[in-house]
Amino acid sequence: MFSRCRAHKINRRISQEEMRSHFLLEKASSYLPDPYGALIRFNSEFCEMTDCSERQRGMAKTVVCLLGVFVLLACGTSVLFMLLSDYLSQSIDVVFLLIFAFIFVVIVGGGIWFLWQAYLRYDFFSCRYFPVRFNRMTGKVFVFRSEEFGGVLDLDWRDVYWHIGTDETGKVCTLRGYVLNGATIVDTFSVGNFFHRDEVYRILSLWCFLEKYMEHGPQDAAPTSGDEFIYYSTRVSFRNCLVRVVSNLPPLLVSLRHKLFFFYYPLVFSLVLTQWLALKSCREPKWPEFVEASCASHSERSSVWTEPERIGQFLSDDVFYKRLLEKESFNKSVFENSGFVGF
Predict the structure, then answer these.
(1) Which among 28, 108, 274, 335 could bridge 201 via Cys, Cβ 3.0 to 4.6 Å?
(2) Beta strands, E only, the chain
(3) Shared domain check, 176 and 97
(4) Both 85 and 171 in a single domain?
(5) Does 4 fall in a domain?
């Protein structure tokens, strides 16, 4: 699966940067655990996160590709009608008509096929999201993938090489897991949202959440009243799509929305509609039976967090909202005082 972050290259040795970011995670214990919007399920047996591709579906590249398909179809149809009109007026013969019609069909079909293979096939008629499940009872990590990409990864928590991955510019980061054979990377996946490099503390807080959950239990992952809530919703609705779209727009553009309303609102509407159509065409991910069986609850006291109908639903509760702001402020302060100089 593609992502905004650097392509996950495999069959290579770990770089020095990846080693440094791996050891940086050891400092995450000083942060307050926070999944930062990636958590979608939580109970005493397992928790489930989205991967970083979740935030990109139906965004600008999708709109551009769909416009490209429309332009190709419009141009191809216009040319074919022109050729047919010339043929009916006897300006050209049937051989000329068939040759040029064939050329334009190949060009238009090839262009649409390229856009589909390069981008659109990942957004449409796929899975709505690609979860990563952490089973603390068995110490397993399950990475959901379609059969096209190798199927579900079944990994041991302690065998995964965790680090902070970056894009080619080094400005966008995400929590990433490697499957290693010695020092060679044989597979890789991401967990949670991607963030700007200045927001690395969010990835450290996400890692702190996962480590405490897997190593110590749900009570350490949510140690304080107000921690026990799920922010993100994977349900398909215009409201959820609007929240996703606006959260991905540059803050400057959002702040200028009233002055640039003639540009801002058409852009937002087109992105929301495209994302909604893309998600509606996709299916809900379904874990294989062996994963569901291994994650079945065997305790009557299983602590289950309620999953929201809409993104940010529970933030209307002051306890959750104040705690969220408190964690953000604390983690940012720890990061700014840590003397972080990169990795």
Answers:
(1) 335
(2) 12-13, 39-42, 46-49, 132-135, 140-143, 153-156, 161-166, 172-181, 184-196
(3) no
(4) no
(5) no
Range of the domain at 34: 12-61+126-336
Give the integer Cα–Cα distance in Å for 199 and 202. Answer: 6
Q: Taking a C-beta distance cutoff of 8 angstroms, is the pair 166, 173 a contact?
A: yes
Residue 196: pLDDT above 90? no
Residue-wise DSSP of 23-92: HHGGGGGGSPP--TT-EEEE-SSEEEE--GGGGTTTSHHHHHHHHHHHHHHHHHHHHHHHHHHHHHTTSS
> Two tokens at 194?
């991607």
b/e per residue 44-62 (b: at least 16 CB within 10 A): bbbbbbbbbbbbbbbbebb
Indicate if the alpha-carbon torsion angle 331, 332, 334, 335 is positive or negative: positive
CA atoms within 13 A on the CB side of 323: 21
Range from 160-164, 271-275, 296-300 carrying the lowest mean pLDDT? 296-300
Same domain for 202 and 81, yes or no, is no
Number of domains comprising the chain:
2
Which DSSP symbol is given to 165?
A: E
Q: Closest by alpha carbon to 165, among 12, 320, 24?
A: 24
- Looking at the fold, whether 107 and 241 belong to one and the same domain comes out as no
Q: Tally the C-alpha atoms within 13 A of residue 40's C-alpha that lie toward its C-beta.
A: 19
pLDDT in tens, 277-295: 999 999 999 999 999 988 8
Q: What is the pLDDT of residues 41-75, one digit of tens each?
A: 999 899 999 988 777 788 888 999 999 999 989 98
**Residue 136 maps to a domain:** yes
| Statement to judge: residues 130 and 195 lie in one domain | yes
Is residue 341 in a domain?
no
Of the pLDDT bands very low, low, confident and very high (cuts 50, 70, 90), residue 5 is: very low
pLDDT at 2: 37
